[in-house]
Amino acid sequence: xxxxxxxxxxxxxxxxxxxxxSFYLTLKSFGYRDVKTFDNGRQVLDLLPELEHGVLLLDLxxxxxxxxxxxQQARDTNPGIxxxxxxxxxxxxxxxxxxxxxxxxYLVKPVxxxxxxxxxxxxxxxxLILQQNQRLSRKLLTGGLDRPDIFQDIITRNPKMTxxxxxxxxxATMSDPVLITGETGTGKDLLAQAVHRxxxxxxxxxxxxxxxxxxxxxxxxxxxHVKGAFTDAREPRKGLIEQAENGTxxxxxxxxxxxxxxxxxxxxxxxxxYYSLGSDIPKASKARVIAATxxxxxxxxxxxxxxxxxxxxxxxxxxxxPPLRERGEDVLLLVEHYLAEACIELRLAREHVSPRLADLLxxxxxxxNVRELRSLIYAAMAGGGMSVLEEKLAGLAGIAxxxxxxxxxxxxxxxxxxxxxxxxxxxxxxxxxxxDQALRTANGNQAKAAAMLGISxxxxxxxxxxxxxxx
Length: 471
Hints:
50% of the residues lie in helices and 12% in strands. By secondary structure, it is of the alpha/beta class.
């Protein structure tokens, strides 16, 4: 039973007390915690506007008030409640009329337990999706975050990142898996921790990097083993999934999993059960799974390298982190943060970023993203200060320019056939000409021109402004 589904209310409205009692016991046996019964239609009619979103099992024919009246009122006053009509009349016209009036489904008595639970689960899932969409719409309209403190470890003022945070606040409390994608070093682990904090789960946040793990190591690490499961298994050991009970299991580099490991993970996510190595006793899991990868799982799925059923299971809620080169406004913000952090940790006097270094930082492409930026700053402070970083980036900028000159897809003869003026142009003049040519080739499209030059759009904008100011 899905924890989010089971904790939302189910309302049973039927004047047949024996049937109401039977439904109540069935739902309780399947794990539904909040089940309320009404044997009087007028009771629920008065309460409809205040009822929490969930599912209403509604008898159509009652002596005091018609079920169709309650159905209409539910649609008008509380559309977040999904109504499943349950009646002894098997008439197509009645069923069609109820569905058109807003009923989620129509069941004919007697209703067997499996049919009841299957229908109820679908209705509850639909109710939760509607509730989630309403919350997301309100958040997009009003703006702002409910819990900005949850994201304090992620340094940003980028609109794309803020939109991710808003979406995360809406889906964090759901129990379905979350997939976080993005290049290496973009902060997928930090975002996973933010999802866990926002979820309100009482268990621990447990992480496992799946890269390079063979099937046996993966299974043993994730599911644990019993004594004697293999030669060296002298004592039983809990797996990470058990340590994450009522919490979050973060699986990094999920795109590297072998086909066999993918099958094991699919069973865990799909059935919420697992087996420790050496045991045939199933264990239930209430951990929420968050997966992350820097791979293109869609392509891996199409190539048959990643299971299609697993892909759709983990792709319920997807968060894609943009690379740092698309977060130009965050670069200097991150630099100041990590510079202050490094100075404290290394017990060094606080240094400042020179205008030249700021310019170099904002034009650098950061292939390793935020992780690379942090490493550059720590290495510079440990090796002599920010002047070291300035010279390093200046050198990298020269290499990037040379690479750009050699690789830009402009219609021209080979590099060896270029005619160079004498004297040679300055580096700034060469940059200016390259930018002009790229913009002409891209018909003024700055995004395409930036891609040709191998730099970010923000870096190109900065370069254009600099060229304009010097003319």
